């Protein structure tokens, strides 16, 4: 069933398609979501959903699982206080999310607002990649299997390449913005700081410091920040390095933003050189982490520079993923994850993720 079919099942919880919006500084917000450019958002109240699950605190809000009563569909509801968040950021996430329909991008169902809170509704996944790999590496001898890294990498490339085709740059690619479920599906989420590309470039400085590309840290065009989707590819490389080694290459914990950005600018690019993994995996990550944008690849070939989809590592796992649709084969292996109990005292959650062999 397609993402669009899923949206149709959610009764009135639908966003009507409209032309791509122009950038606007307008900050007004009302519960019917009738913005000045004609975007109409169906109003849905909290009582349309069953009891909320335990909260998970994110950078821009609280995410809870729930059930849409009319359809019985399990969903994730992101609740954002309109006092603490920029209205423009919320609108941008909704505007971009509702246009997307790809198996490696999270499905967006709709939004509503009540009592100074905005609720955005997405398909429910089981865990984010940051939580997943952190759990694996609690065992000092454990490593994330290359076949799982391959499935994650190829899925992320597919999702990011689709965004590029929609003239969208994510700008905040990192493990916590990649979601997994027990079927092994991999989906990119969180478009709050994403933007539309104009002539294939973007100019706004934003994102998470530890994952920013060097060209975003030290602009070269007369002090102006101008970059392409290659910035997302750098962040992809950092993400894959991190889940391969079990640690971030710049070790950002405890560092000020200034120190961290200085290291990204001044130090040599991280290099994945690990005998545990194949040369193809290391090559893929290291090409993503080329500090020279003239030699860092795009998704597709450009001139003499091969694209990510031309590299052996992507091709190998693209074929495996497409042939299996992420589902377990007779040789599939399952990894069990038990998340720690939250501070609210909720029951721990067991998740199984299938890997492709």
Automatic annotation (TrEMBL):
Keyword Kinase: yes
Cited SMART domains: S_TKc
Keyword line: ATP-binding, Kinase, Nucleotide-binding, Transferase
GO molecular function terms listed in the Swiss-Prot or TrEMBL record: ATP binding; MAP kinase kinase activity
Keyword check for Glycoprotein: no
Top-level division of the source organism's lineage: Eukaryota
Entries under InterPro entries matching the protein: Kinase-like_dom_sf (IPR011009), Prot_kinase_dom (IPR000719), Ser/Thr_kinase_AS (IPR008271)
Domain Protein kinase: residue ranges: 49-314
This enzyme's EC code(s): 2.7.12.2
Broad enzyme group: transferase
Family: Belongs to the protein kinase superfamily. STE Ser/Thr protein kinase family. MAP kinase kinase subfamily.
Protein name: mitogen-activated protein kinase kinase
Organism (species): Parascaris univalens (Nematode worm)
